[in-house]
Design goal:
It contains six helices and 40 strands. It is of the alpha/beta class and about 525 residues long.
């Protein structure tokens, strides 16, 4: 520790004060005129000539300046203490005593620190080093807090395919193979399914005043699973009890040896409600219901019946709803054709054709057959709608809607505005609260009006923080939809016919002329046609 910064020292000739100014060494900071005059004021020493003193300070050389009268009393070495805004660091600056004044000792410095409430992270070795070589007008960090050690969220590692590729194979001749679909993640008895890596809560820190500073909060998780699964003794691993298939639905692991229906779902089986996957080797006849918490696979066709699945629904021979059939999937729907039915999918819908049906998809709607068309009814998708033919020359009303709805877009903008306003208010309030916290931490008593204001702004800060927390989840859901809507488009591989109603996000138009090999999308506030 060396004296590199410039400093000053007062000597007395009777009651006349003389200021000894010592220039800085190479790389050191010069004496601060503001700090010097402030020090002289605290010592009640007059300055007869401010210009002479100023010239001496800025001369950059060692010099003496006769100041003016004072009380003529010797004074001891003094210490200024600065606390950082985050209360994690105490910086001290020492001022030289008068030429015959006394120096501080270790007990003096420790008493000064503790009198200000400093009780954690005091560097006693550095204090001793200073006492061996007193330096002045130099910042010395005598106490440092301990920042918290942040932990990590719990996570679950799965040892099976949690997102199987269910898209059918497209043949070179333009046809689609609906029979070779890899829909099942197979497991054997005793297979490890998932491992829970526990959360790490982290470690508390402390500021220099001994106040605990906790780490960021972390999220815990648990292994959620259904039947046919065993949990290890330590609660960190799950294993399959049976040979069958495994799926992940809503964060819950299911293992099943598959509910097989060897023929049709009809009077011989009744309705089916199964806590896993259902495989129907025949067809689902009119009036019957199949509900599965996993996937539904039908080798035949689906008539005017109800199919509901938390996962995917695959119908290899098509859906003939007879204006009564309803198919609902939390995942994807893949089928040969859809006719006179209502189909809803949380993921994508892929079909050879869609005729006079209501089809809605959380992602895309793809009509993949070579002669596939969308004719009549309404088709909705958050992403894109793609087909060879859309509408018909006969003029059957066909409506295609893609992108985020106007209501959701308005809600998205409003939530975004609210979050921005809350963050702005938090940024304004936090520095004010920190200043009040520093005053209180230093042991000072707030006046009644200041205490009431302090309580008010703390309550406001809590309100804004709670508001952000309550609306963020809804905003993130809409934000994900908004990102998808930016890619919303209608792809026409052959023809789109007049009379087709097209909606993209908040815009709508009716196709007036036949168009071919084109893409309809939203640009610059209007629906435009681009070449495919």
């Amino acid at each position: 520790m060396e004296q590199n910064n410039g400093y000053f020292q007062i000597s007395w000739i009777g009651k006349m004060a003389v200021c000894n100014i010592f220039a800085p060494k190479e790389g050191g900071a010069p004496v601060s005129y503001k700090e010097l005059t402030s020090f002289l004021s605290r010592q009640h020493i007059k300055v007869n000539s401010e210009k002479e003193l100023s010239d001496a300070v800025f001369s950059g050389v060692d010099c003496k300046v006769t100041l003016g009268e004072g009380d003529g009393l010797e004074f001891i070495e003094s210490m200024d203490m600065i606390c950082s805004l985050d209360k994690m660091k105490i910086t001290c600056i020492f001022h030289a005593p008068s030429t015959k004044g006394n120096l501080l000792d270790e007990s003096d410095i420790m008493h000064e620190l503790k009198s200000k409430g400093v009780k954690f992270g005091i560097d006693e070795d550095l204090i001793k080093e200073f006492l061996d070589n007193h330096i002045y007008e130099t910042e010395i960090v005598f106490a440092q807090g301990k920042p918290p050690v942040h932990g990590c969220d719990a996570r679950i590692e799965y040892f099976f395919n949690t997102n199987p590729n269910l898209k059918p194979k497209h043949n070179e001749d333009g046809s689609v193979d609906y029979h070779s679909l890899d829909t099942i993640s197979h497991v054997k008895a005793g297979d490890l399914l998932a491992t829970l890596h526990p959360m790490n809560p982290g470690e508390n820190g402390s500021d220099v005043f001994g106040k605990v500073t906790p780490p960021r909060s972390v999220k815990n998780k648990k292994l959620d699973y259904g039947r046919n699964i065993t949990l290890s003794e330590d609660g960190l691993n799950i294993y399959s009890d049976v040979t069958g298939h495994v799926t992940l639905t809503g964060g819950k692991v299911f293992v099943s040896d598959i509910y097989d229906v060897p023929a049709d779902v009809d009077n011989s089986t009744g309705d089916i409600n199964y806590d896993g996957n259902v495989h129907v080797h025949g067809s689902v006849r009119g009036g019957f219901t199949v509900i599965a918490h996993g996937n539904i696979e039908v080798d035949g066709s689906v008539e005017d019946s109800l199919l509901q699945a938390d996962g995917d629904i695959i119908v290899k021979c098509g859906i003939q709803g007879m204006q009564k059939g309803v198919v609902e999937a939390g995942g994807n729907v893949i089928t040969k054709y859809i006719e006179n039915a209502k189909v809803f999918a949380g993921g994508f819908v892929e079909s050879g054709s869609i005729i006079y049906s209501e089809v809605s998809a959380g992602e895309d709607v793809i009509v993949a057959e070579k002669k596939g068309s969308i004719n009549g009814g309404i088709v909705r998708a958050s992403g894109k709608v793609e087909a060879n033919f859309i509408g018909s020359e006969m003029g059957g009303k066909t409506t295609i809607e893609v992108g985020l709805s106007p209501e959701k877009k308005e809600k998205y903008n409003e939530l975004q505005k609210q979050i921005m306003e809350c963050n702005q208010n938090i940024q304004k309030l936090q520095p004010v609260i920190e200043k009040y916290d520093a005053v209180i931490a230093a042991g000072n008593q707030l006046e009644q009006k200041h205490m009431e204001y302090y309580k008010t702004i703390k309550a406001q800060l809590k309100m804004f923080q709670n508001k952000i927390s309550s609306i963020t989840e809804e905003f993130e859901v809409l934000h994900k939809e908004m990102l998808n809507s930016k890619h919303a488009k209608i792809s026409v591989r052959r023809d789109i016919y007049p009379g087709t109603v097209v909606s993209i996000s908040d815009l709508q138009c009716t196709v007036k002329d036949k168009r071919s090999f084109c893409i309809l999308e939203k640009k610059n506030g209007e629906i435009v046609y681009n070449s495919l």
